[in-house]
Amino acid sequence: MQIVFLGTSGSWPTPKRNVSAIAIKRGPETLLFACGEGTQRQFMLSSLSFMQVTRVFLTHFHGDHFLGLPGLIQSMSMNGREKELLAFGPPGMEDLADVLVNIGHFTSAFPVSAKGLKGGDEVDCGEYVVRAVDTSHTVPALGYVLEERIRPGRFSLERATALGIPEGPLYSRLQEGQPVTVGGRTVTPDMVLGPPRRGRKIVYTGDTLPSNRVLEAARDADVLIHDATADTALEEKANRYGHSTGRQAAEIARDANVRALILTHVSPRYEDTSTILADAKSVFANTFMAEDFFEYPVPYPD
């Protein structure tokens, strides 16, 4: 699983940063969280393809988080996409998507299905779920938790050999949770597998004040991607507009016991983000400042 930051600026783009867009590559599919203007071009400059995007998750309806959707859909359409695109966001997402998909004299060559979510709703994606979390911004806004389902425990070759199970397809069936028959005896998965293992967990806050809801949602996450619009010197102003500072993001990361914190949504006033990062690292050492095209791999926890 790979996180690729396509846009990391808040409010409007700068010469070095485009507005919000974060792609998560998992196997053959790509999920997109936020879609600021110009996102399709950011894809072209990255290691990913926008044609592999299967689902888009919008956090809220401020322009720097959704105005890239019409251009992305039109670019997909003109490049021959036929597969349905699923789009999610706060309540009202269906109406917004209808406007954006049909903007101007354009008809999409592929279906776009939209659904509004509220905090606590889950999108079942098979091997993982994406859960919406209410955040604290100046308009209705969501964060998202991407969490993989529990994985089977490690396969014990030693136990399998002792039980007389021949190498080959029976190993795979046991790892998939199915019992097998060997020499007239039934062997169940628990006889050769260790304890179940958790999957990976990534949390993206979108734009938000420090929030207990985000803290609880982020508990024990592998990666927390958090709004860090300003440094501590501008904390009062950042909070007034529904944003967090690097230090406040780090306090959430520390208290939620996450493995890594990545800061994004930097105010255009900052050409040098070192003060935001320093504020955060003084509280939570394993903190990174996202730049456009920054990539962060997320390995399994064990």
What does this structure look like?
This protein has 302 residues and is an alpha/beta fold. The protein has 2 domains: 251 residues, Ribonuclease Z/Hydroxyacylglutathione hydrolase-like (Metallo-beta-lactamase, Chain A, 4-Layer Sandwich); 35 residues, no CATH class. The protein contains 10 helices and 16 strands. Strands 6-5-4-3-2-1-16 form a 7-stranded mixed sheet. It has a 7-stranded mixed sheet with strand order 7-8-9-12-13-14-15. Strands 10-11 form a two-stranded antiparallel ribbon. β8 and β9 form a beta hairpin. α9 packs parallel to α10. The protein is globular. The two termini are 14 Å apart. 42% of the residues are buried.
Secondary structure elements and their pairing?
Blueprint: E1 2-7, E2 21-26, E3 29-33, H1 39-44, E4 53-57, H2 63-66, H3 69-78, E5 85-89, H4 93-101, E6 112-116, E7 122-124, E8 128-134, E9 142-148, H5 157-162, H6 169-175, E10 180-182, E11 185-187, E12 201-204, H7 212-217, E13 223-227, H8 235-240, H9 246-256, E14 260-264, H10 274-281, E15 287-289, E16 295-297
Parallel strand pairs: 3-4, 4-5, 5-6, 12-13, 13-14, 14-15
Antiparallel strand pairs: 1-2, 1-16, 2-3, 7-8, 8-9, 9-12, 10-11
Helix pairs in contact: 9-10
